[in-house]
From TrEMBL:
One GO term of the biological process aspect: cell differentiation
Basic and acidic residues bias: start-end ranges: 812-824
Subcellular locations according to the entry: Cell junction, Focal adhesion; Cell membrane; Cytoplasm, Cytoskeleton, Cilium basal body
Reaction(s) this enzyme catalyzes, per UniProt: L-tyrosyl-[protein] + ATP = O-phospho-L-tyrosyl-[protein] + ADP + H(+)
Matching SUPFAM superfamilies: FAT domain of focal adhesion kinase (SSF68993), PH domain-like (SSF50729), Protein kinase-like (PK-like) (SSF56112), Second domain of FERM (SSF47031), Ubiquitin-like (SSF54236)
Protein name: Focal adhesion kinase 1
GO cellular component, one term: focal adhesion
Enzyme class, spelled out: transferase
Biological classification of the source: Eukaryota, Metazoa, Chordata, Craniata, Vertebrata
Superkingdom assignment: Eukaryota
């Protein structure tokens, strides 16, 4: 059977000069275009409804039934008997329904003599409706959608301006619901969504002009929003059925009326009840001045029923309608119409009936007298063999093993033999179902798209084999898909390589943008790795050329929802801006080493999260500038997203910065190795000792920066705390970041240096030590003295460290000490682990001064590895030092101590909230936080009264502690809002945890405020005593 392909917008070439079409590998000559028929229909495609059409090549023996069957077969229609072909003259109201057995050539000769061919419109319509047709069509979705589009089009053209305003609003909103069924019920409440509907799609598509002109824009928007909410829960089929339910009382689309006569002038309505009709005849006299006569032989009637019509055309149309219903009701394949037996007509009639009975041959032929219609897609004017530059002989291809699977075909590794290269490695994409011409056309569409590109980071097309089985030959990317590559090389790829991949993709997409193409499927799975420093964009099966329009609309097909922009999910609208969104998601995949976005979230729930402001979190080790760029790609408004040219420039800058930082890290590491090796070789200091078991070690896997397990995990919207190689967690107390990181890395490197020295004495590293060489240089008695001295120093260090710990133990974080010993300790938000925060206090006795030796465990270096309280809670406790009870509060008289009582009350409020927050619904968060806030306000008021009697020198420290508490409460409120916002999502537990973290920090800082006031009181007592 000849090719049939009806999706007019799969793609377009930039040049309109290529007008040939691929069919069974044979090119058409220009002379054959006169034997094609353009048939308009209502099968939904990607273009405007007024352009839905198919161009059908036909032969001399092709009848109307052949045209109809060819179109509906391509759409897998079950109720074929419901369809008819109507011929309309565009400049008059002349309408002809073409009977199924009429020859197409005869029709054209008959009607195109009096008028030019372009003045006639051939239209495929559903004309014959069975009883209970809606219930029957529910099982036949193509027919149901066709009828809906046909009826909606007739409604908009004929009566839309006359119907009641409320009905017009409902019908328009039902069409919006049907067209964008993925859109949420309240989506139009968002201004940007309504503007897309109003400006880009156009309200005229849904509502009659009379409604749009008579209602003010602001009021119309409110009316549409309110009406749309009524149908928020309807799916596509339910919207269609509701449309018919509302429309039926005002527009009878299921009947046709003809003005005719039965002796007297009456109006006849024809309904589908024709069991008793046996034959139909009408006058064949083609004299236009005479009226048409229609005769029907009715079972049981002595005489035929004769009907007089105003013209022969109306009589023919009535006869075709009655004949169609008779065949539909009785299930007959023969026509009920009896015609005069003229030679040519009789021959055509018999041939048509034979075809209907299944005698039609299925041999594919390219003869001009072929009886079978071939559908030519009107807008898909591409063809692969239009220039034979890409056609390859199958004998030159050696098919190898399968290396991948796709939607339309599998990918094999193979060899392409050419005189220049007898063993060129190639990738061969094979078509799974080449027997289906529509699948074959879609499959070759990717090759057509690829051949237009020439870019170092886009997979190149080598050639095609258009004969079955169809093959597409492309360049081979030996490393496979990027996603799998990232997962396998997770621990060997550095950050610069990941940013390089993103930059290379941005150059490819900027190239596509310049050629007015949208890719529509940008994801790590569709990127191929040519080498460890080169990736290429592939899989152009969904790519589209924009031509003169600014966007492409997809009406059907599977689409990657979790990668798509909100306007693509809601309105099936694809632009370069939607590609930018997908590229941002692809960058996130790369930095997450191949993890897919929105893990565990259903496709239907993705758009809701996006519209609520949720975005993918910042990946570990991601530079803040890069994540900021990614969030710009995820702007809800497409106009606010950057273009690919801008992305390319910014990614290049980020890549160069990362390379410079990487070089600097290597240089500093190398310099430290040399310095420490020199110092160790020429000094009398003991070799470095490992840190004691149980004490937190600041070991870092990156040398100069903290390891990922100690990094901060930021939330989705704030870039606070830069992870990875771009920052160090904030350290409480008086230790600055630079000092902490330097000491941390010195200590950390010394540990590694010791391990290398002990286990790899012959390492060929300029900074390593050869212990055996040192042993050979020193005399035996000197070595013995050195070992004794080392033993003494180790014992001294042990005693010093134990004393150091007592002074460096943090203030109470989990235990309330003497505040309320009967209530026990304040538990952490997620577990019973202790979390420490070092806080330097001026009144504490200073520890013994002892400069840290290289390799000796430094308390400052150890402190540098600890996160700030908020960091620790967000990330989870990673370090567990030896459990040591913190010191109690000052030993003061607590009778009538209002500050003490209010601190106790605040801590109790936090404990109560912590115990209730997990099972509590979101609406109960506010009362619990309010209790904590009231307790804090009472505490701060009491402190304001107490501070007046304390020394002025202590006021500054007390005020700072008060500000910290206010900041803690603000953080708690912020986390509460986030926990409420993301209820019933995967982030709910995370924000609950952060909420508990903020509450815990508030309680701990309240205890710190009490300690500060106690110290001020002790200082005041000391000043008041006589000397």
């Amino acid at each position: 059977m000849a090719a049939a392909y009806l999706d007019p917008n799969l793609n377009h070439t930039p040049s309109s000069s290529t007008k040939t079409h691929l069919s069974s590998g044979v090119e058409r000559s220009p002379g054959t275009m006169e034997r094609v028929l353009k048939v308009f229909h209502y099968f939904e495609s990607n273009s405007e409804p007024t352009t839905w059409a198919s161009i059908i090549r036909h032969g001399d023996a092709t009848d109307v039934w052949g045209i109809i069957q060819k179109i509906v077969d391509c759409h897998k229609v079950k109720n074929v008997a419901c369809f008819g072909l109507r011929l309309s003259h565009l400049q008059s109201e002349e309408v002809h329904w073409l009977h199924l057995d009429m020859g197409v050539s005869n029709v054209r000769e008959k009607f195109e003599v009096g008028h030019a061919p372009e003045e006639w419109k051939y239209e495929l319509r559903i004309r014959y409706l069975p009883k209970g047709f809606l219930n029957q069509f529910i099982e036949d979705k193509p027919t149901l959608n066709f009828l809906y589009q046909q009826v909606k089009n007739d409604y908009m053209l004929e009566i839309a301006d006359q119907v009641d305003q409320e009905i017009a609003l409902k019908l328009g909103c039902l069409e919006i619901r049907r067209s964008y069924c993925e859109m949420r019920g309240n989506a139009l409440d968002k201004k940007s969504n309504y503007e897309v509907l109003e400006k880009d799609v156009g309200l005229r598509r849904f509502f009659p002009k009379s409604l749009l002109d008579s209602v003010k824009a602001k009021n119309l928007r409110k009316m549409i929003q309110q009406t749309f909410r009524q149908f928020a829960n309807l799916n596509r089929e339910e919207s269609i059925l509701k449309f018919f339910e509302i429309l039926s009382p005002v527009y009878r689309f299921d009947k046709e009326c003809f003005k005719c006569a039965l002796g007297v002038s009456i109006l006849i309505c024809i309904y589908p009840d024709f069991h008793q009709v046996q034959t139909i005849q009408y006058s064949t006299n083609e004299d236009k001045d005479r009226k048409g006569m229609l005769q029907m032989k009715i079972a049981g009637a002595p005489e035929p029923l004769t009907v007089t019509a105003p013209s022969l055309t109306i009589a023919e149309n009535m006869a075709d309608l009655i004949d169609g219903y008779c065949r539909l009701v009785t299930g007959a394949t023969q026509s009920f119409i009896i015609r005069p037996q003229k030679g040519k007509s009789k021959c055509l009639f018999k041939l048509a009936n034979n075809e209907k009975q299944g005698i039609r041959s299925h041999t594919v032929s390219v003869s001009e007298t072929d009886d079978y219609a071939e559908i030519i897609d009107e807008e898909d004017t591409y063809t692969m063999p239009s220039t034979r530059d890409y056609e390859i002989q199958r004998e030159r291809i050696e098919l190898g093993r399968c290396i991948g699977e796709g939607q339309f075909g599998d990918v094999h590794q193979g060899v392409y033999v050419t005189p220049e290269n007898p063993a060129m490695a190639v990738a061969i994409k094979t078509c799974k179902n080449c027997t289906s011409d529509s699948i074959r056309e879609k499959f070759l569409q990717e090759a057509l798209t690829m051949r237009q590109f020439d870019h170092p980071h886009i997979v190149k097309l080598i050639g095609v084999i258009t004969e079955n089985p169809v093959w597409i030959i492309m360049e081979l990317c030996t490393q496979g898909e990027l996603r799998s590559f990232l997962q396998v090389r997770k621990y060997s790829l550095d950050l610069a390589s990941l940013i390089l991949y993103a930059y290379q993709l941005s150059t490819a997409l900027a190239y596509l943008e310049s050629k007015r193409f949208v890719h529509r499927d940008i994801a790590a799975r569709n990127v191929l790795v040519s080498s460890t420093d080169c990736v290429k964009l592939g899989d152009f099966g969904l790519s589209r050329y924009m031509e003169d329009s600014t966007y492409y609309k997809a009406s059907k097909g599977k689409l990657p929802i979790k990668w798509m922009a909100p306007e693509s999910i809601n309105f099936r609208r694809f632009t370069s801006a939607s590609d930018v969104w997908m590229f941002g998601v692809c960058m996130w995949e790369i930095l997450m080493h191949g993890i897919k976005p929105f893990q565990g979230v259903k496709n239907n729930d993705v758009i809701g999260r996006i519209e609520n402001g949720e975005r993918l979190p910042m990946p570990p080790n991601c530079p803040p500038t890069l994540y900021s760029l990614m969030t710009k790609c995820w702007a809800y408004d497409p106009s606010r997203r950057p273009r690919f040219t801008e992305l390319k420039a910014q990614l290049n800058t980020i890549l160069e910065e990362e390379k410079l930082q990487q070089e600097e890290r290597i240089r500093m590491e190398s310099r430290r190795q040399v310095t420490v090796s020199w110092d160790s070789g020429g000094s009398d200091e003991a070799p470095p000792k490992p840190s004691r078991p149980g004490y937190p070690s600041p070991r870092s896997s990156e040398g100069f920066y903290p390891s990922p397990q100690h990094m901060i995990q930021p939330n989705h919207y704030q870039v606070s705390g830069y992870p990875g190689s771009h920052g160090i967690p904030t350290l409480a107390g008086s230790i600055y970041q630079g000092q902490a990181s330097l000491l941390d890395q010195t200590d950390s490197w010394n540990h590694r240096s010791q391990e290398i020295s002990m286990w790899q004495p012959n390492v060929e590293d300029s900074g390593s030590l050869d212990m055996r060489g040192m042993g050979q240089v020193l005399p035996a008695h000197l070595m013995e003295e050195r070992l004794i001295r080392q033993q003494q120093e180790m014992e001294e260090d042990q005693r010093w460290l134990e004393k150091e710990e007592r002074f460096l133990k943090p203030d109470v974080r989990l235990s309330r000490g003497s505040i309320d010993r009967e209530d026990g300790s304040l538990q952490g938000p997620a577990s019973n682990q202790h979390i420490y925060q070092p806080v330097g206090k001026p009144d504490h006795a200073a520890p013994p001064k002892k400069p840290p030796r290289p390799g000796a465990p430094s308390h400052l270096g150890s402190l540098a590895s600890l996160n700030s309280p908020v960091d620790s809670y967000n990330e989870g406790v990673k370090i567990q030092p030896q459990e040591i009870s913190p010191p109690p509060t000052a030993n003061l008289d607590r009778s009538n101590d209002k500050v003490y009582e209010n601190v106790t009350g605040l801590v109790k409020a936090v404990i109560e909230m912590s115990s209730k927050i997990q099972p509590a619904p979101p609406e109960e968060y506010v009362p619990m936080v309010k209790e904590v806030g009231l307790a804090l306000r009472t505490l701060l008021a009491t402190v304001d009264e107490t501070i007046l009697v304390l020394p002025a020198s202590t006021h500054r420290e007390i005020e700072m502690a008060q500000k910290l508490l206010n900041s803690d409460l603000a953080e708690l409120i912020n986390k509460m809002k986030l926990a409420q916002q993301y209820v019933m999502t995967s982030l709910q537990q995370e924000y609950k945890k952060q909420m508990l973290t903020a509450a815990h920090a508030l309680a701990v800082d309240a205890k710190n405020l009490l300690d500060v006031i106690d110290q001020a009181r002790l200082k005041s007592l000391g000043q008041s005593r006589p000397h």
